[in-house]
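Hi Y.,

Following your request, here is the sequence exactly as I used it, all 443 residues.
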Amino acid sequence: MLDGISKSLTDIFRNMSGKSVINENNIKSAIQEIRIALLEADVNISVVRSFVKFVTEESIGEKVIRSVNPREYFIKIVNDKLVEILGSKNQDIILKPKDTLSVIMLAGLQGSGKTTSAGKLAYYLKKKEERKILLAACDVYRPAAIDQLIRVGEIADVEVFTGDKKDPIKIAKEALKYARENKFDTLILDTAGRLHIDVDMMNEVQKLAKETKPDEVLFVADSMTGQTAADIAKEFDNYLGVSGIILTKFDSDARGGAALSIKSVLNKPIKFIGVSEKVDGLEVFYPDRIASRILGMGDIVSLVEKAEEIYDQEEAEKLEKKIRKSEFTLQDFLDQLNQMNKMGSIENILEMIPGMKGRMGDINIDEKKIARQKAIIQSMTMREREDFRLIMGPRKRRIAKGAGVTILDVDNLLKNFQKSRQMMKNVIKGKGKYGNLDMGKMF
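Below is the corresponding structure, written out as tokens. Let me know if you'd prefer a different format.
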């Protein structure tokens, strides 16, 4: 997500390197390129105009001309405006105390990802906030929508209320009663997808909101719809009073128009982003962190938070000791690959590391190659995983056959493993930096 505009901005900043001052002569072309990059990303035209006006006014003036490092100052100007457009600061989801029922309604177009987001939100609130969640299946129109929500509920390990499966208003009212009687503290209503121009359907969801009085009405928007998501959200807001936004498919190759338009146009915060299809693929939206990633400066805070969720501190310390002593084994390597899978794709992880964004074009991340490496290690005996030096001719042939690969693939894994082991040892001892590592060869 946002890769196109991120690359454009990174190139613009790179072209400014070596400039001693920022003035009209050397800033005019940069601002024009920013304008084109935003328009190509399908950002709302009024947002583009506001962005360009702000950057122009802040960049050209005595204060900036006298700046010691004009390139960094220009980046700061762009960053400040990006953060403002994205929402300045994250907005927490509105929840009542646990002794009172909180109601959350999800609304949006069909196909925007409401049902999946309902399950992700339930999982998030259960895990992060320790809430007792009830999902209500209020989409009675889409074939298999209720069955899908039931499956999503099973994955998230939360209960799903289906009612008579015919009348969404009746289902919602009965779900409210059931939730209160059974001491649930959070009810999430999964409503049917509807076109904003369908008056009857919009009136129905408006009535549903009046009957349930939700604490949050979250508009679920597909990131790939671009700036039109903001216009559609305004219509839903007129009927429902939208309180926040969930942007789905944020990990896609969408141009970014929705993310950079919807908050400014609707004046409602983006609260969550969908970053994968997995049940844990919902993240809190932090404007400053997203702006930092757009500008190629990484997002080390989110990376650390992800790592803290996955990695045990005691195990991490043990692993560090093994690396220092050159005792890091293929089994350890396999364990780390499995842990990294839980954090997301390798490419997304690398993008969070400051300084890596600009180098991503030089790195070929092959997820299939990683799966192949795991298969090779899994074809080894535990003794071989603990001591790779045992793996000679006959063992290599057996391992290659078991993994469905060639002997050359096994050789390459062993060679890259030894290089990676030494590089990790150097990094931990302070003799090297990740910037010098050949990530393409590691993955």
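The chain has three domains: 3-86, 102-297, 301-442.

Thanks again,
Q.
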